[in-house]
């Protein structure tokens, strides 16, 4: 937990981090502003499996989820970094829901595979 001061107003920021392996891929899932739920972890894993269909040499996946701002249309931000041989891949997306943001970011990663 971290205390932030903005314009004399105190905010408590919640940071959660979990590391685990999926099919020999080191996954680092970090959340800011909320705690992850089992359903959200399942969604992250589902999208990672979807990405793995297009690229089998992934060695690490860093997933950064942040809930920020007051606009419910765009307050859920997802950042993916995939560790692969050579240059790592990165994608970011923001939306109104975690499933939509996760899917959009994984689609951006998939497009990088074919480009």
TrEMBL record:
Protein source organism: Hymenobacter roseosalivarius DSM 11622
Tree of life domain: Bacteria
Gene3D superfamilies: Ribosome hibernation promotion factor-like
Protein name: Uncharacterized protein
InterPro entries on file: RHF-like, RHF/RaiA
């Amino acid at each position: 937990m971290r205390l932030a001061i903005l314009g004399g107003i105190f905010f408590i920021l919640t940071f959660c981090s979990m590391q685990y392996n999926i099919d020999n891929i080191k996954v680092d899932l970090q959340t800011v502003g909320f705690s992850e739920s089992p359903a959200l972890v399942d969604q992250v894993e589902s999208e990672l499996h979807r990405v793995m269909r297009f690229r089998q040499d992934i060695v690490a996946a860093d997933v950064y989820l942040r809930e920020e701002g007051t606009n419910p249309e765009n307050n859920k931000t997802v950042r993916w970094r995939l560790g692969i041989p050579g240059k790592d891949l990165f994608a970011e997306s923001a939306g109104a829901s975690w499933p939509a943001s996760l899917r959009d970011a994984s689609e951006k990663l998939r497009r990088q595979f074919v480009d």
